[in-house]
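COURSE: Structural Biology Practicum
ASSIGNMENT: Worksheet 4, Part C
STUDENT ID: 0417
INSTRUCTIONS: Below are two proteins. For each, the amino acid sequence is given first, followed by its structure token string. Answer the questions at the end about the second protein only.

PROTEIN I
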Amino acid sequence: MILEYLRFALIIVNSLAILALLIMSIRLRQREAYIWVKRLWTIVTLACGALVLGSIQRLAVQAVVVGWLPSSAGETLTGDLQLTQSLVVLVLLAGAFLTLRKLAGSMEASERLTASLLERVRHVDPTSLRLTKRESEVLALIGQGVTTDSDLAEELHVSPSTVQSHIKSLLRKSELHNRMDLIALAILVGAVGTGS
């Protein structure tokens, strides 16, 4: 009988851990801004939900073994839980398949865009640019998506005209034509691992 109670206690601890993971995945999903990451958290949430249902089912079976539930009630409860769990798993699999398929398409598009950007700067040798420390900082910020004069000026604590001067210098040294090219250059410099 002690073994049955021990199993019951282990199932409860397991259920609580899965429930904590379920709550955490719901909270992280709510905070996430990117749609694809949000959908991946939804998949994790559904998986946790299926595991919670399985834990409740195991608790019902163990409650019958210990004698806390009559076997007829345990059979009814576990049957309903199995059906619900099967439906949750079906939704989970369909959602995972669709999300991962679309995510793969988005990643392929991102790779094509990156390759296209890098093609624009293929003639630039990042090791020979001889950028000043400030030019390197400007280029790094551009690579992080900070592209307007006012945003760059705020980040660097300089005036927008000083930022324009650094941008002109970067374009001249790299023989590029616009800020889009500088984004590509920032990717290239980041990939090569040079900065100044």
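PROTEIN II
(use this one for the questions)
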Amino acid sequence: MQPALYVRQKRELAELFGFETRNKYAISTSDRQEVFYAAEQRSGLWGWLGRYLLGHWRSFDIAFFDPRRIEVFRAHHPFRFFFQRLEISTNGRLIGALQQRFSLFSKRFDIVDDSGNLVFEMKSGFFQFWTFPISRGAEQIAVIEKKWSGLLSEMFTDKDNFRVSFQDASLPLEYRMLILAAAIFVDLQYFEKKAGN
């Protein structure tokens, strides 16, 4: 129930040489205590080909682990060229999803519960390149912000850092899971190198 979590992508040495590797993240509190780890699950030749040829359009799973390496929840991204989707589940039970919506000048996602009901909206305006507010109606309940990783990291790797701030302290744990998964989805959708680059 922290007011903010920090998502730090783990750098892989192979990325310095242009190879896309499995995405891995450390998730910590403001006092740098690591509370979760997240890692893309597809490895091997097929996983590498998918990352290299299809970029963020590929099908993949990201598992979220506690510090004892026990899986707490999982995010599944089905293969799609348009209107990306991320489905979040815990113990095999769907808890919700992020669904990209059509928008000309902004980045827009609906966050829905397990029945498909709209819970929150994540919308980043045209000039809000690194900020993704999450709202329930007119009330902002959380915000995802990309933080500067340093010149060399920004230029040569996919290593990104994000802060997830929860403005509504009463948010249930499952909604916090959806928002945390949204932070990683933002990274994969907008900051990972795309296929063919």
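ANSWER KEY EXCERPT:
Q1: The chain has one domain: 4-191.
Q2: Residues 4-191 form a domain with the Porin fold (CATH 2.40.160.200).
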